[in-house]
Amino acid sequence: METQITDLFGLQIYTEKGMFIGEVEDVLIDVDAKKIESIIVGKCNDQLFELKNYKGLKIPYRIISAIDDIVLIRHLPGAFTGGSSIPEE
Predict the structure, then answer these.
(1) Strand runs (DSSP E) across the chain, as ranges?
(2) Which residue(s) pair with 79 in the sheet?
(3) CA–CA distances in Å: residue 64 to residues 32, 58, 87
(4) Which residues pair with 59 in a beta bridge?
(5) Residue 77 near residue 38 (C-beta atoms within 8 A)
(6) Taking the alpha carbons of 57, 59, 41, 45 in that order, is the dihedral positive or negative?
């Protein structure tokens, strides 16, 4: 399945444990290797980051588990603290 890079912009990003991280703001491409290097997160979850002048987050493409209606990344213990998650049913 192929996806246009522009389709990624604005997608919400969650960890596999349901923690909301933010939205895809940009994509960093390694032109020489012809692959996506990382995604840039905008509209970050304020509960995860305590830095006042924090402007964004760069997530390496290798930790992305899936991309569809949302971007799903591997949950890295200790990488994020707090945050909202998807309500359990």
Answers:
(1) 12-15, 20-30, 35-42, 57-60, 64-67, 71-73
(2) none
(3) 21, 12, 22
(4) 39
(5) no
(6) negative
Six-digit token string for 56: 């964004």
Q: Find tokens 């760069």 and name the residue.
A: 58
Domain limits, the chain: 1-53
Buried b / exposed e across 10-22, counting CB within 10 Å, b at 16+?
Answer: eeebbbeeebbbb
pLDDT tens-place string over residues 37-85? 999 998 888 777 665 566 668 899 999 999 999 999 997 766 665 544 4
Report the predicted TM-score, pTM, of the whole model to 2 decimal places: 0.77
